[in-house]
Specification:
By secondary structure, this protein is of the alpha/beta class. Helices cover 38% and strands 13% of the residues. It contains 16 helices and 13 strands. The strands form three sheets. Strands 5-2-1-8-6-7 form a six-stranded parallel sheet. Helix 2 packs across helix 16, helix 9 crosses helix 15 and helix 15 runs parallel beside helix 16.
């Protein structure tokens, strides 16, 4: 892990606490309306997980918001498969632990590699093969470090994440191995599964920005029926059978501050998705596009696609009136759902006839990867 990656982890672990709170009552306010909740664990349909002597990888998705967590998760997928250990599918972290199968289907993940849901792992595997008293927490630190305490549960979201799974740690194991190809062969030698059956890591075993070689793993992240139903219902209720352009705007104060430090850099956050392989640098128009750029590119894409709808996903200001006025001559309607769950925005954006996103944002990168797999077109502010 490099110093820049460490800084990113610290910055976005801090930013992850800046999340709009929701409680149980908000579930009736989302775009899809009332939803019948059910237990989505494979074990509840008779698929009881069995012990894997090759060992397990379990980690906290504790860096940043949804987009960052998913980029780290894809890296963790690659790491578990490279070690031939079963991947424990961790909860995503919002203001609570979100069971993996609330957002994504289990079966496609099982096609990629051996997986087990974290909640099933804790109920059926951990009591016998990873019991209290034998639970080691792993964390990366540089070889020069003299601090051997991982502080696995110190602070938020680390403490709430592990508490949600009912895990307390008995000791720390500090490692300096990387997650890259050069060190992969060393992991089973230094930490054999016979001695260390569970690699429980403080953070995801992945680099950030994510490795290009892991982007294709997005194909195994298939939205759950719950997410698909809610996204589809919103579309059917507001613009059924219409061509639409989906756009992603990042303009919250935390993002504006982040962009101030990004200008003129060659790599920052998710920017490799549009700068990789070039000598170009990040510009203000790419990271924090002015209104003129938003209106220009949105209009260009609307004209090219003959769309009648623009759907806006944003962390702050959707610019609904400005876009609506700018496209008045095209009879275009602008929608902004502001769903209680950002995953619904992702699902709606993924299905648009054309998508415009922010090159530096990992929220955009999720949509871009999903669309690339399906051959759908995408553009970036300041780049198209």
């Amino acid at each position: 892990m490099y110093l820049k990656e460490i800084i990113f982890v610290f910055f976005f672990s801090y930013c992850s606490i800046i999340v709009r709170p929701h409680d149980e009552d908000d579930r009736g306010q989302r775009p899809g309306g009332p939803y019948v909740y059910r237990d989505t664990r494979p074990s509840q349909s008779g698929s009881i997980p069995q012990w894997d002597p090759n060992g397990y990888v379990l980690f906290c998705l504790c860096m940043g918001r949804t987009g960052n967590q998913i980029e780290h998760f894809l890296g963790g997928m690659a790491f578990a498969k490279a070690l031939n250990r079963t991947l424990v599918l961790p909860p995503f972290r919002t203001y609570r632990n979100v069971r993996f199968t609330e957002w994504f289907k289990f079966e496609p993940m099982a096609e990629f590699h051996r997986v087990v849901l974290a909640e099933d792992f804790m109920e059926y595997i951990a009591p016998t093969h990873w019991p209290p008293g034998e639970r080691f927490g792993f964390c990366w630190k540089p070889p020069s470090s003299v601090d051997n305490d991982c502080r696995m549960k110190e602070g938020s979201p680390f403490g709430p994440f592990w508490d949600g799974l009912g895990v307390d740690f008995d000791a720390s194991i500090v490692y300096s191995l990387s997650y890259h190809d050069g060190d992969i062969a060393r992991w089973p030698k230094v930490y054999p599964p016979e001695t260390y059956p569970v690699l429980a890591m403080r953070g995801a075993p992945a680099s950030y920005p994510m490795a290009r070689s892991n982007r294709h793993l997005q194909r195994y992240l298939v939205y759950s029926d719950r997410i698909i139903d809610e996204a589809q219902k919103y579309i059917e209720d507001h613009f059924p059978d219409e061509r639409y352009v989906g756009i992603h705007l990042r303009n919250g104060v935390d993002w504006v501050n982040a962009c101030n430090g990004a200008e003129s850099q060659r790599s920052y956050m998710a920017s490799p998705q549009c700068l990789e392989g070039t000598s170009d640098v990040i510009t203000k128009a790419m990271c924090n596009p002015p209104l003129s750029e938003v209106l220009r590119l949105t209009r260009d894409v609307v004209l090219a696609t003959n769309a009648r709808v623009v759907y806006v996903a944003t962390d702050k200001n959707p610019l609904t009136k400005e876009i609506q006025d700018h496209l008045a001559d095209r009879n275009v309607t602008v929608f902004h759902a502001d769903p209680w769950l950002p995953m619904i925005d992702l699902a709606i954006l993924s299905r648009s006839d054309h998508f415009i996103g922010n090159c530096v944002s990992s929220f955009t990168s999720f949509v871009k990867r999903a669309r690339d797999i399906e051959g759908r077109p995408s553009s970036f502010w300041g780049r198209s």
